[in-house]
Amino acid sequence: MSKPGKVLKGLCKKLGIRLTVKRGKKRVYKSVKVLKAQCKRKQKKKKKRKVKRKRRRKFGSIFVGDSRMLSSQNKKQLFHDMTKEEQISFTELSKLFKKLITDHDPSNCEKLDDIIRRMEIINPILVPDEFYKYNNHYCSQMFVPGF
Q1: Average pLDDT of the residues in 108-124
Q2: Domain residue spans in the chain?
Q3: In the structure, what pLDDT confidence band is assigned to residue 1 with cuts at 50, 70 and 90?
Q4: Which H or E element spans position 28?
Q5: Does 40 or 94 have the greater pLDDT score?
Q6: The predicted structure's pLDDT at residue 107
């Protein structure tokens, strides 16, 4: 048999259909008619099997220790599991952070970093994501590009 055309060859490869058969000790191409018929049947099967899948997130995926995965109930439980001293210092640091942000003073950038570090020492899961966002936004404004 003669070789099948380029398009038919590509389609067969995509569908997983072999182009040749063994006849004795030799490999011989299948006829174009046979290949087209096999491709047609295979495409019908593939259409039936097609299952819609939800898109997966390619970026911004959540890791296990991320606070966004915890429900508010779990966060409250984690907070109550801490000692009284840890609870008090955590709330004080949180209030101080909020106060420093309202001041809009560029020299507060290092203080904000320090507060976040101290909160992470107490319990890294309970540090609000907004704190990281504010800190990144606040400190990035402090540095002027081009210097």
Answers
A1: 82
A2: 6-47, 69-142
A3: low
A4: strand 26-29
A5: 40
A6: 72
Three-class DSSP category at 66? coil
Any bridge partners for residue 21, and if so which? 28
Helix (H) or strand (E) run with residue 91 in it: helix 84-103
Distance CA(20)–CA(11), nearest Å, equals 14
Window from 13-22, 44-53, 138-147 with minimum mean pLDDT: 138-147
Phi/psi for 50 (5° steps) reads -60, 125
Q: What is the largest CA-CA distance in the chain?
A: 88
120 CB contacts (<8 Å, ≥6 apart)? 127
Helix axis angle, 6-15 relative to 32-49, nearest 10°?
40
Spatial CB neighbours of 30, under 8 Å, sequence gap ≥ 6: 1, 4, 18, 19, 20, 21, 38
Residue keyed to tokens 């950038």: 109
Is a pLDDT exceeding 50 seen at residue 65?
A: no
User: What pLDDT was estimated at residue 134?
Assistant: 76
Q: Which helix (H) or strand (E) holds 27?
A: strand 26-29
DSSP state of 143: S
